[in-house]
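Lay summary

Proteins are chains of building blocks that fold into shapes. Our project writes down both the chain and a compact code for its shape. Here are two examples, one after the other.
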Amino acid sequence: MPRLTVNNEAIEYRLDPATPLLWALRDASNLTGAKYGCGTGSCGACTVDVDGRAVRSCQVTLAQVEGSFVTTVEGLSRDRAHPVQAALLAGNVVQCGYCIPGIVMAAAVLIKADRDPSEAKIRQAITNVCRCGIYPRLVEAIQRAARAARGDETLPAVPRPGIDPAEAARSVPALSPR
């Protein structure tokens, strides 16, 4: 059975070693941040960090990543406090959001390796497809995230994700039949 560390937790997957990492993460670990986009590795919606590399998880099997350390967007920061997440939100970069987890992971890997990436480096590293066309704002947001990661800039506080379950639904008197 393939073993790896996912978001700092040792996992043994009881799946066929030929299973793509994406499906192990989504179906077995319920980590749905990595998205299925194209299935060919072209779009980058499924990007995760594997041992410090941005990897298209639809293109690698559990056998290929056995023994690796995998970080998904959920493991990066559940409260969106990572500099890349905060910078994308502060720069109003996010639109539909489908591609964002993959972009966040690719950018986080880039910033970990290069604390001051140039525009050319960013464009070379972030090959993810975004149908909404966020690219002009994306480069500046990634540079801003790098400045924040270095401590050269402070990003605004990020709103808390989600909604308090007590506020999402509450009991009310039953309606009378008409």
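And here is the second example, written the same way.
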Amino acid sequence: MGAEASRRTILVATTNAGKVRELRAMLGDSVGWKTLADFPGVGEVEEDGATFAENARKKATEYARATGLWTLADDSGLVVDALGGAPGVQSARFSGDAGPGADRKEIDRRNIAKLLRLLEGVPPEKRTARFVCHLCLASPERVLVETQGTVEGLIVDEPVGDNGFGYDPVFFVGTLGRTVAQLPDDEKNAISHRGNAIRRFMPLLNEVLAGSVSQDGR
């Protein structure tokens, strides 16, 4: 992207520090990035969609209208075949809604504990699962870009590894022989659902940035 395009500021619509770190690492600094922490007066958008795509689209469009900035939102989660697709869009709230100021690591621990309880007695070959990430970029007027990425794996019967967040410690990637929580950041980003969505997203972002420069000089 050229110097003119780099002046575009994009809001990353999340307060999840792990997501922010991953997104910034992969998206780079060719545009200015802000997060919801920069807008403490903006109310939280309720994630009440039936799909990852619906939630990402709702967050991107509503936060864009509230802030006046192009907004990148993602909705992502874990889909477990033996549980009929659960936890799905409820992944972050699988063990119940957390109150204000709740500790993210404790929430992750409770979510994993519930997942493993539900999978007790399910043989390893039936524990197939995937992480799904849907990305949506919107201006205050319209949706600009949408992409989706996935990564396939198995749910192991106990957490392994200290990296990552969410369900990473129990998500085993067979081709690597490790859980996602055992991977350093660069290896995780190379195979992750979010990484795959972002790799599809970046050329489309370049296109819309180039178009915005030609239209309004920004």
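What can we say about the second shape? Residues 5-216 form a domain with the Maf protein fold (CATH 3.90.950.10).
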